[in-house]
Amino acid sequence: RFHQHYQSQATQHPEQMDAFWMPFSANRQFKQKPRLLASAEGMYYKTTDGREILDGTGGLWCCNAGHGRRRIIDAVQQQIATLDFAPTFQMGHPLPFILAERLAEIAPAGLNKVFFTNSGSESVDTALKIAIAYHRARGEGQRTRLIGREKGYHGVGFGGISVGGLPNNRKWYGPGLPGVDHLRHTLDIGRNGFNRGLPQHGLELAEDLERLVALHDASTIAAVIIEPISGSAGVILPPEGYLKRIREICDKYGILLIFDEVITGYGRVGKAFAAQRFGVTPDLITTAKGLSNGSVPMGAVFVRDRVHEAFMSGPEHMIDLFHGYTYSGHPLACAAALATLDIYAEENLFEKAIELESYWEDGLHALKGLPNVVDIRNFGLIGAIELASRQGQPGSRAYDVFSNCFHEKDALIRVTGDVIALSPPLILEKQHIDALFSRIADAIRETD
Ligand code: PLP
């Protein structure tokens, strides 16, 4: 009854859209021509006006197991009826302990400790704080500098926007945390344009880290944080060997390496984590999104055993990490995540991205030659189609393709700047890949 009541209220009174200040949205434009989703199942959303929309973005890079999964629904329903909330500060309930063990099993070897958050942004701020506190716990309290990367996106907390490299964050919110520096990004369409898989050029960009160490001195640097594959700035891939070289330099100078796997985690690139696909093990991994299939907000930070160990040498009655969220390890989120991990394991979804990778790649690269397409990038079940920007109106062309896809082609894609970024649920099949690319191709053809 609750659902019917609010659903019909929402559709019968579309004018009631004023109060919700939507995140990362052009609010006035949206409210003139809304895009409202009412329900979802499998690979499809259904709109409030009854259209079935093929989901090319896994919601927002989070619904890796597809929508409306019975197992997750049952787990959450049972959990809320049993234990709605329990504190995890000096208290506990069984689920986060069980979930952390399950997560340690799928994490890269050596990252066996898990700290729970509610989002990717919180995971990032948590990891940055752990990195700084780790050095202090070992008597190197002067290591507070954080190194991020241009075009990096690490969520919206002050820590995350500081190590991130998006100019809009500087423009609107000021310089951010002191003592942060950035590596250059690795996007180089001139040399790597229309390359399939990892770029062949750009390994030398990893040497930026040597330069920053020479500039700031290693003794001031706590950690480097990078996305193995950036999503939000338009799908930027690591050149062959780049991540391995960054790891080597971090090891040489005792700098912690954080992989932000909020979008690459939980099977997006054919292994549980991109760290495993690339064969490079960081000291901390930040995750969220796919952890609970997007159903209940949850994030998790994976921590290397020896990093965790540094916090365990004080008196046992002392709080070892002065950090946490009221909802860390929330019962509903844990129930959703446990059910999600069951689905991933039973349906072998982490392997799905590798099985389908070449079909996905072929379908995507077949769009080469369409009007205004200046680059195509892919890895795992991630795809990007970069369009030339209109003179003086960056982002407007991709937005028009997005709008056309949604309103006329019944396909949900995501655009960031003039890049179309694709991250479908991992349950997709070849027929969905065909349908998605043919609809996008038509929308690109119809856009000036
Ligand atoms: N880090 C990365 C790499 C992301 O892509 C995102 C979100 O897209 C975040 C952090 C922030 O996650 P959230 O929106 O859950 O705070």
UniProtKB/TrEMBL annotation:
An example Gene Ontology biological process: biotin biosynthetic process
InterPro entries reported in the protein's UniProt record: Aminotrans_3, Aminotrans_3_PPA_site, PyrdxlP-dep_Trfase, PyrdxlP-dep_Trfase_major, PyrdxlP-dep_Trfase_small
Pfam family, one: Aminotran_3
Alphabetically ordered keywords of this record: Aminotransferase, Pyridoxal phosphate, Transferase
Family matches, as SUPFAM superfamilies: PLP-dependent transferases (SSF53383)
PROSITE patterns xrefs: AA_TRANSFER_CLASS_3
Keyword Zinc on entry: no
Entry-linked CDD domains: OAT_like
MF terms in GO: adenosylmethionine-8-amino-7-oxononanoate transaminase activity; pyridoxal phosphate binding
Cofactor: pyridoxal 5'-phosphate
Family: Belongs to the class-III pyridoxal-phosphate-dependent aminotransferase family.
Classification via PANTHER family: ADENOSYLMETHIONINE-8-AMINO-7-OXONONANOATE AMINOTRANSFERASE (PTHR42684), BETA-ALANINE--PYRUVATE AMINOTRANSFERASE (PTHR42684:SF1)
Name assigned to this protein: Aspartate aminotransferase family protein
